[in-house]
Amino acid sequence: MTKARPPIAMLAELTHRCPLSCPYCSNPIEMARQDAELSTEEWKSVFAQAADLGVLQLHLSGGEPATRRDLEDLVQAAREAGLYTNLITSGIGLTERRLKALDAAGLDHVQLSLQGTTPEMADEIGGYKGGFKRKMQVAEWIAEIGFPLTLNAVLHRRNLHQLPRALEMAVEMGARRIEVATVQFHGWALKNRDALMPTREQAAEATRIVQEARLRLKGTLVIDYVPADYHSDYPKRCMGGWGSTGLNVAPDGQVLPCHAAQTIPHLRFDNVRERPLSEIWYDGAAFNAYRGTDWMPEPCSSCERKTVDFGGCRCQAMALAGDPAATDPVCIKSPHHVDLQARADAHAAAEYAALIYRSAPGKAPEPAE
Amino acid sequence: MQPAEIPTLPRGVRLHWDRVRETWVLLAPERAITLDQVGHAILSEVDGSRSFGEITAGLAAKYNAPQEQIAKDSAGFLGALRERRFLEVA
């Protein structure tokens, strides 16, 4: 195996605590409790190690990162380490005073999540009354301070019709960029496929709207688009290739090749409390498990796309095919593809399903499907 | 890009020396763009006060190259950044 290159991006999940309880939350079902979270000093050390390792982009996420009272200190430490700092937030927990402190700390960019374009939709999806109103206030403060802003719209069957308004809102807020992300079915979202799976028609309509908006808003708003996965013919290039460009540090210091990697039962993860980050990246068993192409079975190993999408998502192969080394079932070459398409249509046609909200860290989770 | 236009790197977009890979990069939201020598030379001149014409004239003198060619190459490069909203023009 050729030696891995240094990572470019690190996702720091500062906490799993969050005032929202979105039914598609990417946090694991078993969340880290507050008393297990890395301390301020531990995070600072991780940021310095990440910069030494070659990380350029630091994404501060959660849970809700603003739940950490030391967020401002962490941003300052990350900037001092030489990292580009991106705050991924719902806005809840940010005040004008805290935003000004983050500005002074050197925060580079804010990514604000959008659960819906109306208070009714956003508050229902987020499971937090008054959240939308608060978010709009935070967006105003972000614009006043002048932070570069990306709006991160998460779309699914319930709110895909709001995509045109989400694009308008991004422009009105002065965002330079919007991520139009159709829900990916991992973690909590797997429990909510009957409620959230878009129909094939919705998925096609979203693609059409994005294509039209990209032309119309060229030079005003950059649109990054994550299409509906189950309705695609080729899998997504997950994480840019396992262990190739990015890593994820969980609240308790476990270092993961992607945020869902803990769903693969045989993987063993290192912790920054026990091992230097550089060793974990280059020599850690979890990072080397699916790095490159040597691990691939057929039909991936002889496929001309094997370095395009790296066989797709390992966690999805685990969840849907029961084998983390299998071809992502989204791929038309997967023996599970036809079945997946049928299941996607069945989920999308489900009459009405109540949302199963994520629970708080330390609380008993809902039973899995 | 017109000679009188003044390019500027907006907030959140900055040049950065990548000491691990030993190269200049342009850091922007969700992006890190590796810069070659030419890209770095152009962006180093972008200071938010000098016009595109002044910048290309300066580069032509510095590298002893025809200004027309430099203007053409620079306009393509800066135009692509502008489309991504990594560059603004006053």
From TrEMBL, chain A:
Q: Subunit structure, briefly?
A: Interacts with PqqD. The interaction is necessary for activity of PqqE.
Which GO BP terms, alphabetically?
molybdopterin cofactor biosynthetic process; pyrroloquinoline quinone biosynthetic process
Instruction: Name all Radical SAM core domain ranges.
Output: 4-221
Please provide the record's keywords in A-Z order: 4Fe-4S, Iron, Iron-sulfur, Metal-binding, Oxidoreductase, PQQ biosynthesis, S-adenosyl-L-methionine
In which family does this protein belong, per the annotation? Belongs to the radical SAM superfamily. PqqE family.
Q: What is this protein called?
A: PqqA peptide cyclase
Query: Which residues are noted in the entry as [4Fe-4S] cluster-binding?
Result: C18, C22, C25
Q: Which cofactor does it need?
A: [4Fe-4S] cluster
Any matching Pfam family: Radical_SAM
Q: Which domain of life is it from?
A: Bacteria
Which reaction equation describes what this protein catalyses? [PQQ precursor protein] + S-adenosyl-L-methionine = E-Y cross-linked-[PQQ precursor protein] + 5'-deoxyadenosine + L-methionine + H(+)
Cofactor note text: Binds 1 [4Fe-4S] cluster. The cluster is coordinated with 3 cysteines and an exchangeable S-adenosyl-L-methionine.
The molecular function terms in GO held by this entry are: 4 iron, 4 sulfur cluster binding; cyclase activity; iron ion binding; oxidoreductase activity; S-adenosyl-L-methionine binding
Identify the species of origin.
Answer: Salipiger bermudensis (strain DSM 26914 / JCM 13377 / KCTC 12554 / HTCC2601)
Keyword Kinase belongs to the record: no
Record InterPro entries: 4Fe4S-binding_SPASM_dom (IPR023885), Aldolase_TIM (IPR013785), Elp3/MiaA/NifB-like_rSAM (IPR006638), MoaA_NifB_PqqE_Fe-S-bd_CS (IPR000385), PQQ_synth_PqqE_bac (IPR011843), PqqE-like (IPR017200), Radical_SAM_PqqE_MftC-like (IPR050377), rSAM (IPR007197)
Q: Which pathway, per its entry? A: Cofactor biosynthesis; pyrroloquinoline quinone biosynthesis
The free-text function statement in the UniProt record for this protein reads: Catalyzes the cross-linking of a glutamate residue and a tyrosine residue in the PqqA protein as part of the biosynthesis of pyrroloquinoline quinone (PQQ).
Q: What class of enzyme is it?
A: oxidoreductase
| E.C. numbers | 1.21.98.4
